Amino acid sequence: MEFLYLIASLVIVITIHEFSHAWTAFKLGDPTAKFEGRVSLNPLKHLDPIGTLMMFLVHIGWGKPVPVNPSYFKNRHRDEALTALAGPLSNLILAVLIAIPLKYFGDRMFDQVFLFLNILMDISIILFAFNMLPFPPLDGSKFLGWLIPHKYKPKYDLYLQNGTLYFLIFLVTDRFLLLRIFGFSFLSEFIGVIYTFVKTAIFLGT
């Protein structure tokens, strides 16, 4: 049952994440995602075939990237950053909304409902943390680009062009060098710290 809850949670969280990218881009003037039917909460519009298969195989998946044409934006760097931030932020908001009934009515819920909501909240927080890493194609890299001083923008844009390669190197190093040899994973530690901080803050603040 937990496996089914995990898959359902991934579908929900990824759908909301990608919808938020598409909706924000549309509101900021870019109709590209709207024309492709991505401003929708229909999971079929957002699920990537390989990403969906990976949900069942390794319990980690991803959605189809939302098409964005920055030329439509009035303020390119700002609006690209806001569009990128919309996905992770939607996951954080979802986690906060789920925490409210868990905190105040958790002891009166059916066990299976309580379990599902906890899994959904955890997946939301983890996806938020993961996507805020500053590596392309993750959203954190685009949001960070907004904060880079103007004189460094060309160098950062070059980094974005090659950043996916850096991200793959980071993952391989983290999984096969740090973890296997030293028993330490930067990725796991980063997500763990963010997860603990966010979950603690959510329950203290709701």
Write the layout of secondary structure elements.
Elements: H1 2-27, H2 32-35, H3 49-58, H4 76-105, H5 111-131, H6 139-147, H7 153-182, H8 186-205
Distance between the ends? 29 Å
Low-confidence stretches: none
The strand count comes to: 0
Q: H/E element string?
A: HHHHHHHH
Characterise this structure.
This protein has one domain (2-205). 73% of the residues lie in helices and 0% in strands. It contains 8 helices and no strands. Helix 1 packs antiparallel against helix 4. The model has no long low-confidence stretch (mean pLDDT 89). It has 206 residues and is an all-alpha fold. The protein has helices at residues 2-27, 32-35, 49-58, 76-105, 111-131, 139-147, 153-182, 186-205. The protein starts with a helix and ends with a helix. It is globular.
